Each structure stands twice: as structure tokens, then as C-alpha cells.
Amino acid sequence: MSPRGSIKPTGTPSAEPRPDLRALPGPLGAHVSSAGGSAEAPPRADAVGATALQLFTKTANQWKEREVAPDEAAAFRAAHAAAGVAFAVAHDSYLINLASPDAGLRARSLASFRAELRRSEALGLDAIVSHPGNYMDDRDAGLARNADAIAEALAAEPGRVRLCLETTAGSGTALGRTFEELAAIIARLPAAVAGRVAVCLDTCHVFAAGYDLVGDYDGVWARFDDALGLERLAVLHLNDSQGALGSRKDRHAGIGEGHLGEATFARVMRDPRLSRVPKLIETPKGDDPETFDRRNLGRLLRLAAG
């Protein structure tokens, strides 16, 4: 399954070489399928040259939960080491809404999020990327509900796995459209768990939310630093945008194939402040995920080189 928000590209590209990303100062990779079991994800990452990977640890659009058995954990860790992947994260279920005013949905979401923390810890992942959810009624109340649920979950499920709150395009009642909203969630967390919470910035999402990475690149990063601090940035999702600036549309495009363009990604890849931040693509995969991921990762490698 591809990450939500992607649009299938048309046509089939010619065979793409496997890019060698090992010379980059920080990990770079892709969201890869875990079909057939979590241990199948690292070889798929290796096949596209990735030094970072993102995966679903369960079916993302179903409530059905599962635990990771010791043999699965051992198989994943062995595959992870063999692939030479330096950074691995999960993306949690799209159904989770920790900000919901509905007590039943929030309780179900909290249980699902706790299960994600346990699976990710068992697999030895570095982090979980999570959307802040939808407030439905009142924005400030939603931010508070989200923060309180995060605090409860992290306290109940101790470990080394970090939570990376992802910026969103901000459609409807989605939280995370502004850097200040993410800062408000983090500020409400108790000190005992706040150190486990960081941020994932998605280039498509922030552009669709109104942050002009094309015309005001340095200004956007200054605003991020003011609101959250660059030290909170733990993951970058590198996706071009089908939607225009401020469109609020979460529609990913291949690198250089949307409104952000290659020049913006060149700036990201050459920015010394971001050089060691793990970067992941969630770009459209068409009918040939390996080929399209190689193409997009190869473009980023070329842009990094100048």
C-alpha cells in the first residue's frame, strides 16, 4: 500500500539504475511495502538503494491490531541489518484520531496508537510518524485532547521509539497545518515524555498549507525554527505537490513533477542545516514501485550533487 495522498503517475519509465545513496551525510530512502511480513521491507528498501525506510506495521486502513512475535522481530532486525538501512520508521494507522471529541473513537485510537508503539519497539524502529488528527469541534480542545492522549500512551508504553508529529495540509478540521499547532501539542506534554516527541515535516503538506518553500525558502525555515526549533526536526518527507500553494490538498507528486519543482528540492538536499536529517519519499509508485522509487531517489541524489 502506498501512503495516502499519492497519485499514480502515468506511463512506465525506462529501467532505472539503483542509486548509491551511501555517500550522503544523512539517511535517504522511501516508504516501502511490508506485504508478506515486516521482514520483507528492508530488502525492498535495499533494492532501491535506500539507507532509510518507512513501513506500515499493520494494515493502515483497518482497526485490526496485532502484536509482533519474537520470531518476527528477530527476522526484521536481521533483514534490517543486512540491508544496511541506517534509519527505520513506522507510519501509524490512518484511522487513529487522538484529537477526536468522540469518547469511543478516541479510546479506540489510543489503544491502536499504543499497539503501534509496542510493535515499533519490538521491531527496533527509530520512530513513528503520526498525523495529529482531526479536532471536529474546537481546535484548541482538539490540540489538548491530542496532547493528553500522546502523554498517556508514551507513559504507558516506555521505550526508545520516538513519536514524530507530521505536518499536514490542513484540510477540513485536520490539526498540524501550522508549526504553532504542533508546538502547542508539544508544549502541553509532561517533561517525562516530551523528550520522545519530535516533528516530521512533509514538503508537500507544508506547501499546500501555505508555507512558500518556493518563493520564501529561508523564511519558512525561520518560522519553523521560531515555533519549534530545528532541533525538533527528526524526519523529512520529500514529496512534490500536485496542489498549488495554500490549496490545502494532500496530493503527492514525483520529485520535480509538481509545484515545488527540482530547484526547491535542490535547496533541501544542499541545506547544511538539513544534511543529516533522515529523508523519506512517499512519491507515487505507479505499477512499478521499485523503478519509480529508484527514479525519485536518483533525482534527489543528482540534486544533492549539484
Classified in CATH, the superfamily is Divalent-metal-dependent TIM barrel enzymes
Averaged pLDDT: 95
Query: In CATH terms, what is the fold-level topology?
Result: TIM Barrel
Tally of helical runs: 10
Overall spatial form:
globular
CA(first)-CA(last) distance: 33 Å
Quickly give the CATH architecture.
Answer: Alpha-Beta Barrel
Number of domains: 1
Question: Total strand count, please?
Answer: 10
Q: Encode the helix/strand succession as letters.
A: EHEHEHEHEHHEHHEEEHEH
Radius of gyration: 18 Å
Helix coverage percent of residues? 25-40%
Structural class: alpha/beta
Strand order of the largest sheet: 1-2-3-4-5-6-7-10
- In the CATH scheme, the class would be Alpha Beta
Largest sheet: 8 strands, parallel, barrel
Proportion of residues in extended strands: 5-15%
Descriptive labels:
TIM Barrel; 39% helix; single chain; 306 residues; alpha/beta
Fold and architecture overview:
The protein has 306 residues and is of the alpha/beta class. The chain has a single domain, classed as TIM Barrel. It contains 10 helices and 10 strands. The strands form 2 sheets. The chain has an 8-stranded parallel beta barrel with strand order 1-2-3-4-5-6-7-10, surrounded by 4 helices.
